[in-house]
Amino acid sequence: MPRYRTLKEIDDAGHDLRLWCYRCQRAAVIGSIIWQHFESRGLSLAIADATPRFPCRQCGARDCLILPASRPPISDRDATELVAGFFHAMRSASKKRDYGSDRIARALIDRARRDGHWPPPGRKK
């Protein structure tokens, strides 16, 4: 496993944060997108500096170990709901004569193609 120096590096690698309390041995997983909260407040993104900012919910200790945790895979149902939500949002926007929605949809599809997520599984190119 590679060594990460900052919270952003963990997020960029596609992992969440696993926090393990040294005092009570409690573990918790939080989204690594928290680096944006740190950045907006002007806090250091270094893991060593971030450790005291995560108090344990059980015992209150501020001495924890931060490790990368794998993100749960997205299920087909979740993906379907995501696409349906996007479709209905775009349909609603077009009814409001928002002609920028087509441009937004094309940009999202181009990004998905670039990242290798388009076409969705089961669809032909």
Note down, in words, how this protein is organized.
- The chain is of the alpha+beta class and 125 residues long.
- The chain folds into 2 domains: 7-70, no CATH class; 76-115, no CATH class.
- The chain is 42% helix and 14% strand.
- It has 5 helices and 3 strands; from the N terminus they run αββααβαα.
- A hairpin with a 5-residue loop joins strand 1 and strand 2.
- The longest helix is centred in the last third of the chain and has 20 residues, at 76-95.
- The two termini are 35 Å apart.
Gross geometry: elongated
Please state the average pLDDT score.
84
Q: Numbering strands along the chain, what is their spatial order in the largest sheet?
A: 2-1-3
Helix fraction?
40-55%
Q: Return the string of H and E elements.
A: HEEHHEHH
- Biggest sheet architecture: 3 strands, antiparallel
Instruction: List how many beta strands DSSP finds.
Output: 3
Number of domains: 2
Briefly note the structural class of the backbone.
alpha+beta
Gyration radius (Cα, Å) is 20 Å
Helical run tally: 5
Amount of beta strand: 5-15%
> What distance lies between the first and last C-alpha atoms, to the nearest angstrom?
35 Å
Which spans of ≥5 residues are poorly predicted at pLDDT below 50? none
